[in-house]
Inverse folding.
């Protein structure tokens, strides 16, 4: 058993985890970031999500875009779509500027160290000199950015999975009866027109022309009975292949080649950890302001429903994301960030996108670093001080009070 002492441990190196780790390290904390894969980037790399949805462009997300603008031909052309490898490169470059950030790739968080209801760190598994080895990372604050809420789940935090009934929070777009269904999964891929005579434009699924004769494909929409169960994921992946194979053939018959397929089927939704506040559809639709706002969004609902038409609204009123949605109910020493924060199925569908979850992560990282420095719980830090630090350099998180709602 290996042991590492840190100020903050972040599990998951996707947009939220990367934002969290960078922000805590910039604040002077010794941060350990665990990522099970070889590359940072989360969905932008693992799921081939190669386009940014609307959100406030600030802080770490803005730094990533600056790097993409310098190196990535697709991003230079579209200012929205990009290539996964350049996203990973941007993360590597930004991380290389942080001497207090220790990244452990190929390392999976499998459990927590806990005293009573206080999380004291994470148990991870890696390989050292060919041997599977457990590592304990002891830290006063753990941030779960796994997307699935794996670490909060291991700590015994309360969570929700599936859809709330409309009556529970009076949500107009929720189904009448609660169930265990989550948003559809999608396997992303790309194709390129190689026959210069071909006039064909892909007309299946969701396809986006990203320039240079290339298309980004939301390749299939398949349900998964349980997005945190390996066998159910395998079944969904097989179903996805069945949908995509004829489309691959159509592309080839029409002078295209499939040039890239994401390493994994993309999961939009799994556990949502229950926090001190649950963000609901009405909070988003009404533009609710929270006193403990840490970022905001005006993205409307975007739920790929398993059994009915997609719910999509381009925008909504500007609404806040409160710090309390990052604080699991009844636990201390742990924060969640990213798509597993405390929200209903319907509310999550709007703000889950990369610009917004990166800024949620940044706030979590900063709050964790402040708590570690002050030797107190995140619950006891000054929210106004957190908000002030977030707004100032080097964090530069801007939120709704700075941006006039359109
Ligand atoms: C098909 C699809 C299309 C999308 N389209 C868009 C779009 O067009 N625009 C947009 O902005 N957003 C889009 N999104 C949403 C967005 O990509 C995600 O909501 C967002 O990336 C979530 O960020 P996250 O950091 O919470 O999780 P993730 O991006 O999922 O990152 C989680 C990271 O944690 C790691 N991890 C997980 N468990 C462990 C563990 N136990 N130990 C160590 N590491 C672990 C994973 O390997 C991963 O790197 C899309 C999502 C999907 C699935």
């Amino acid at each position: 058993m290996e042991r590492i002492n840190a100020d903050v441990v972040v599990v998951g190196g996707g947009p939220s985890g990367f934002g969290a780790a960078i922000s805590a390290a910039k604040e002077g904390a010794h941060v350990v970031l665990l990522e099970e894969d070889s590359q940072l980037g989360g969905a932008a790399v693992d799921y081939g999500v190669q386009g940014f949805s609307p959100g406030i462009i600030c802080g770490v997300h803005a730094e990533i875009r600056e790097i993409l603008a310098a190196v990535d031909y697709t991003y230079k052309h579209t200012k929205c779509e990009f290539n996964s490898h350049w996203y990973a490169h941007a993360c590597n470059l930004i991380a290389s500027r942080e001497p207090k950030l220790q990244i452990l790739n190929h390392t999976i968080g499998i459990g927590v160290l806990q005293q009573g209801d206080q999380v004291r760190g994470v148990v991870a598994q890696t390989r050292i000199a060919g041997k599977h080895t457990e590592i304990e990372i002891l830290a006063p604050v753990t941030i779960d950015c796994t997307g699935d809420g794996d670490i909060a789940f291991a700590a015994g935090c309360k969570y929700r999975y599936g859809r709330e009934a409309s009556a529970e929070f009076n949500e107009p777009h929720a189904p009448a009866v609660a169930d265990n269904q989550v948003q559809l999964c999608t396997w992303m891929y790309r194709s390129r027109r190689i026959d210069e005579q071909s006039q064909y434009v892909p007309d299946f699924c969701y396809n986006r022309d990203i320039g240079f004769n290339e298309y980004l494909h939301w390749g299939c929409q398949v349900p998964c009975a349980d997005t945190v169960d390996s066998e159910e994921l395998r079944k969904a992946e097989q179903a996805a292949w069945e949908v995509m194979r004829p489309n691959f053939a159509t592309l080839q018959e029409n002078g295209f080649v499939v040039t890239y397929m994401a390493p994994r089927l993309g999961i939009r939704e799994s556990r949502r950890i229950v926090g001190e506040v649950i963000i609901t559809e009405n909070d988003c639709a009404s533009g609710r302001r929270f006193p403990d706002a840490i970022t905001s969004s005006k993205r409307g609902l975007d739920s790929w429903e398993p059994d009915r038409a997609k719910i999509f609204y381009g925008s909504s009123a500007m609404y806040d994301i409160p710090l309390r949605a990052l604080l699991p109910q009844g636990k201390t020493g742990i924060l969640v960030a990213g798509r597993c924060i405390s929200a209903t199925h319907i509310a999550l569908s709007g703000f889950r996108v990369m610009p917004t979850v990166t800024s949620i992560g940044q706030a979590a990282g900063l709050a964790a670093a402040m708590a570690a420095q002050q030797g107190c719980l995140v619950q006891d830090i000054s929210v106004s001080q957190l908000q002030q630090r977030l707004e100032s350099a080097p964090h530069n998180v801007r939120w709704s009070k700075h941006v006039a709602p359109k």
